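Quick one before lunch.
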Amino acid sequence: MNHRIEIEGAGLAFDSIEGRSVLDAALQAGVELPYSCRKGVCGSCAGRVVSGQVQGVGGVAVQSDVCAPDQVLYCLCEAASDVVLAPLSWKKLDPAARKTFSAKVYSNELAAPDISVLRLRLPAGQRAKFQAGQYLRMRMDDGSTRSYSMANPPHESDGVTLHIRHVPGGYFSTRVARIAPGAVLALELPFGHVALDPEDTRPIVFVAGGTGFAPVKSILDDMMRKRVQRPIALVWGVRDASGLYMRGAVERWRRQWPQLRFIPALSDACDGAQDIQGVFMGRADQALQSAFDSLADHVIHCCGSPPMVAAVRAAALAQGASAEDFHADVFVPGPAT
Ligand SMILES: Cc1cc2nc3c(=O)[nH]c(=O)nc-3n(C[C@H](O)[C@H](O)[C@H](O)COP(=O)(O)OP(=O)(O)OC[C@H]3O[C@@H](n4cnc5c(N)ncnc54)[C@H](O)[C@@H]3O)c2cc1C
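Model of the flavin-adenine dinucleotide complex:
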């Protein structure tokens, strides 16, 4: 049975979809609520239910430790009656904004032994419209899709650049290094809601785990082009020195922002680590705790695997960051839902 879902104070209402989350129903109706992973991990879609009842899709719990006590995760719950929701923000989706493309591989290079940088060109005259920090879905030959963050800034719109870590046993990522220039891949974009406020001038700390650097690169290249002035720090957590696969980009940002703090965090001991300027030996969450006395009134933007984001979130909150100022882009493994 369908129920009516209303967004408080927005003058917007749409029908629920049986067996699908209220987030899915909103997106289907052209209403974008904050979201990232859509699998209950990142907490981006946490919001309040002002009236009415929700229940977990397929019986799952609708809250987790990333929610405030009065919040539920909109990606995990469906309407069990007519409901009024109070999301952190909302906007009307432009139905023409998301497009599918047949993109051609322009170059495919190994940036590290287990990281491919794939540059794709769109067909002549076509442009990718996205916001820095958003991601795309790539269709596999078995019909499933994988999500990858754009690493290029939005103004480089004639193609997309992806940083793909080779996951042992992974269906796509173990094949990516063998994709030859000229191959055609099916993409759909953009996806994801980037919660960063361009007007905010408070200090911002990016925390990237491995190829979580990709969306951070897109955002920082975009901020550089827009000449944004605010205190910026970047913690890049990797296993060993080879994981810092694009230090040249960091050097470029440093030329624009001499005050940029860069903290490379190596979790495994390795030769030559001591030669890396400012290196922290340990995980990204430990580096964050060691580098900042307080994260009160800081914005934190964290991108990487679910356990990494969970650890960084706990560290950031322990250092005084507020939950509203912690934004995450979680690389939940497996086919996209
Ligand atoms: C929003 C979003 C953005 C993403 N952006 C990027 C990106 O920019 N770069 C990038 O490299 N990846 C990114 N990912 C992850 C990516 O979508 C794939 O999950 C990943 O490349 C593995 O795909 P696969 O086909 O090789 O593995 P699959 O065949 O899907 O998985 C094979 C096995 O490996 C496990 N597995 C998959 N990924 C991991 C992992 N990271 N760590 C441990 N085990 C894993 C799976 O659980 C499964 O058991 C993103 C994911 C999301 C949701």
